[in-house]
Give the backbone structure.
Amino acid sequence: MAFLYIFLAISLGAGIVLCLKPYWQTGIDVLNGRNRIVSPVFLFFPSSYLVGTLILSWVTYFSATAFKDTENPLLYANIISIALSLLILTTIAVLKRRPVKRFLKEFRRYGLNFHFKKTEWFILISSVIFWSFFICRSFYMKGDILRVGVSAFSDFGAHLPVIRSFSVGKNFPAQYPHFPDGTIRYHFMFYFMAAYLEYLGLTLPQALNIPSILSLVSFNMLLYALGTFLTKKTSAGLLSCFLFAFRSSFAFFTFLHGFSNVKSFFYAVANNLSADLNYREHIGNTLREEWGLWAQKVYINQRHLSFAFGLFIIVLFLMLPLFIETIEHIKRSNTKGSKNIYLQQKEVFFNQYIKTVLFSRGAWAIKSLMPCILSGIILGLIAYWNGAVVIAGISVLFIMAALSRGKLGYLLMAIITFILSVFQSRLFSGSGTGVVSLKYNPGFLAESGSLSHIFSYYTELLGVLPFILAGIFIFFGTLRKKWAGLVISFLFIILLIAFMPSVDLFWAFFIIILLIFCYACLIYCNNIDIKITSLWLVPVFTAPVILATTLQLTPDVTVNHKYIILSVILLNIPVSDLLSELFKTKTTLIISLCLIFLLTCTGIVDMVTLYNLDKNSVSYNQKDRVCVWVQNETNPEDIFLTHYMTHYGAPMSIMLAGRCVYNGYPYFTITAGYDISKREECMKRIYSAANSEELKKLAVSEGIDYIVIEDQNRTAAEYVLNEEIFYETFTVAFQDNNTTIFRVR
């Protein structure tokens, strides 16, 4: 049944995409060109999955919420979502009966006949193999035992309870299992979708892993298409996906700096050890880089991220034609009568840019509103799939709007996104409470907000990436005046020397010389043709980095890392354009390959680290006596007071049974925007209570149904447990070994 639902979601998405073809076809033709550098069907499959899953999941959730008072809300949701999907597909088939008849005729004659190019097959197959391996290795089941890899178990402490609150519990309308107060400020919809797949018959690992793999593969396919569209080079599309998988950073070189010989370095990499042979996780000296904030691990433990990234690329497909047409319009306006379009670049910027993008009728008017409306709907609907992607996406589109014609279209898109996002925020978080709060906080995770510390931080974090991006400006500066390219080159080499972290002298010299050679090629080689679109896209794609560096929108500024991740993914496209241009001669090819090594060596170590991390796992027994008793003997709405360390013991067993805990793991609740101070104080007062009457009154007033005492409570540092008073005050509902559960009412 679960696979039928996935097929239905893809079919629904395919039907909607085809039905809306008149509104997006022109834009895709602008991007794809006459030669169709990307096969249309290569875009069609991932778009169908993402769009169909997005819409059908919302339909299923709201249907279940409508039947929240029934014994089995998901049963009714299943009936409604399937019936509605079939109705929509039937309607589309009737309205588009001629294309449908043509398709059925060809299908009977040739079967399912679609053509991918070799590079497209490579992206598809390599993505499936690479991400399936790490996804399935991080979360699987042996018998009744759930195994969560070390790379994932921390974040899964939040995700698994959300899934089980829907699939086993009756969490409608949704509230956060770690802080049940009738609201949910956590982007939960991906995990609701996984819960529904578990309800339909998949095991919990299958229900989470399958959509995770589909999302990552879909994102890779769309990223390849985007990179190829913008550069008109399949090699750049391939490179964009490769750079996505393996990040750029100086972490490789700062880590290498601590070793006296190569053998000990490779031994440490292979065994997740530091230079002093102590255990480590991810390499890197910037704040919290050891968490794996920038590594492949992000997509292993934050499964919802790639799904939202993929949908944002679809939004870019809809909005980029406006941007591309603006560039082409300015080029046409300034090349009349001139053989070299770069001779008049100053006039392009100061005259035609201002006239075309600000003061002409075309600067504001738009030919077709539908792509903008669709973009706003998609962005708005992913607010509770991953809100950070919406915010980062808006920052990208804001800069794009500033550089484009058709600004009213961007404005309409932003208004629709805002309305849908605010509606969801009010619906799930309640009136008067905001998921996002704006605060000026310069510096992100740098040592301070000073420019020198910010430059040092991003140089160490991003490695040579910013300096290769600088090559694009050097190239176009040279086309105006050669001395301009030389000046820009000199400035960036000085910046690199000034802000490069401590690395071995050999590698410092190698990196600097390699970049000098790269810049020299860009200045003096005549066969390099970087697309002017890449130049314009650098400020557009840099917008999320600026946002992350200046503003704090959530209680934990670390969450801003998602903005930077998206920005780097997009900036890899102009970088890939530059690097692929260096493939043309043997000399420049060597330089390009060396630069690719510098860009990916840290990511390769990250991959080895991820592999090693998941050699070990945390186990959760689904037949644990606490879990079974809670699921069978308590109501789905019951709330349990437990120790705050919910990753282990009775608290996780309770949440895997689909129930909520009164005050869960603080990092999950605080970063979601909850004020836990009152509940923390109540928890301490209850567990350390000396008066039976006050104990019962406090527990009842806080809506607690059961109180759990286990070894974590007995050894807690926050309070001194008075265990005897609980036996005097409440009835023992369950007891097993060192775990006792008291019924409050």
About this structure: The beta strands are 139-142, 145-149, 439-440, 551-552, 617-621, 639-641, 660-661, 706-709, 731-736, 739-743. Residues 339-348 have pLDDT under 50 and may be disordered.
